[in-house]
Predict the 3D structure of the following.
Amino acid sequence: MATTTNYSWSTPDDTDLVKDGAAAIRTLGSSVDTTTKALNPSTTLGDIEYRSATADTNTRLGIGTTGQVLTVAAGVPSWAAASSGAMTLIQRSSFSNVANTGTTFDGVFSSTYGSYYLVFESMYAASGADDLHLQWRYAGPTTQAATYFGNDIAVESGTTTITNNAQSNTSQSVLTRYIGPSSDPGKGQFFIYGASGTSSQPAIYGNYHEGGRGATTTPSVINLDIRTYTGFILKSSSSNITGTVSLYGLVKA
């Protein structure tokens, strides 16, 4: 009896007198069906197949859960939690000429992340000399507008001038005293700590390059009101703002 080269399916020899063609076709078809199923064991949406230790047979890997990454364990593919230190983009917002009531990042804090990385890729105000304010949010759209403590220290480039502005029980945190004009937008990066959990006291620390005047602001602000915080709002002290801001979550260790 002749067989195929790769999977050894039975076929008639050239000299065979095929008396029952239907039976011969069924035999070949069954072999093809069995081999195809072995190569494609998927049963569910999102399945992945990989080569098993058995010749001509694949193994089904079911889809992982939200937040897991594909890795290798014991020499085969598997799903696992993201390793410590992984950074995930949560929200990237580009906004133009937004009123000084601000732009919001709502529903961005969760137990998945231990801290957050906030990046101002570009930021300017209609009046470049405006303050850049941040307020924490809780219970959806509710704004926490009290008990901000800390300071922002501005250092002017090329001089020894240092300005320290204390923040004691204020209504919002000040990230910079000079957002920057459209001709030279400001840029900055900040870390947010303690913003996840049922008894949170969020704090923000980082630095901001004040576009248009060559100065750097280093704010450090904490809110002492214990709540379950969900997000924050960015706004100008008096004029409209334009910019691109990204928030990343840092996976817990």
Remarks:
- The chain has one helix and 19 strands.
- Residues 133 and 174 are 5 Å apart (CA to CA).
